[in-house]
């Protein structure tokens, strides 16, 4: 597996920097790790240390990075609340990274400011993995989303995929739409007018020859698609709280809305959910968001093993 692909020492900042072959290579590595015997797996990153620097709240990304690293025999240092670090005393991100790089082999970072992960990667020779930078990118989420789609449908190519909710501020849908452009998928974007997919991403998708359409109602597309990707309306990204109040409950997926969907249609959500999917949906065969979050482990294990050179 691999040929000329080599991730050793490389930072993973944006899905835009990964070719189709590199994306597939990471997904195949995740599959290989899932199938690996326990003992071999538990020693893959023995002696390696990861910094987990989370300047913004997280459950899945932070804990699955930490779990991925420790289950491969590595260790984790870091913080989940930047106010317990010297950031609270005014230390810059650049200086923080210049310190941390002496303590670890790899850095996983989440930051509210777009471009912060790239800035961090430019401050160090150690590989940096972006765990989400503002409304910009969340590349490991995209990799686990692709891994999940492949597991759910047996393929990625040629699928019909709807993305619904906060398409303006949603970094997961930005990254996923670009990644799917490699796989000849038909995309459906469902959002209120104020939360449409930014023009930059639509222009990029057009340039890449992706077929897509924009919609305001779930009912317009749900019966056609193979994957329905729901997202949270992200209160914390709205500059004006009144604007959030207008759209916060605009999309609520209920069990009744699934009566005519394709038998194998799967519902994904990067989570956390607020009101987007009712609990009644969880018990349907279409719900796939908890399996999706579990896939964060093998995919992040693959990324860490590759950038640390433990797997080639
Ligand atoms: N999907 C995701 O990024 O979840 P967290 O914000 O909990 O990490």
Give the helix tally.
12
The largest pleated sheet is described as:
5 strands, parallel
From the 3D structure, determine the CATH topology of the largest domain.
Answer: Rossmann fold
CATH class of the largest domain: Alpha Beta
Mean pLDDT across all residues, rounded?
Answer: 96
State the CATH superfamily name of the largest domain: Aspartate/ornithine carbamoyltransferase
Whole-number radius of gyration?
Answer: 19 Å
What general outline do the C-alpha atoms trace?
globular
Low-confidence stretches: none
CATH architecture of the largest domain: 3-Layer(aba) Sandwich
Query: How large is the share of residues in beta strands?
Result: 5-15%
Estimated structural class: alpha/beta
When the domains are counted, the total is: 2
Order of strands in the sheet with most strands? 7-6-5-8-9
How many individual β-strands? 9
Order of helices and strands: HHEHEHEHEHEHEHEEHEHHH
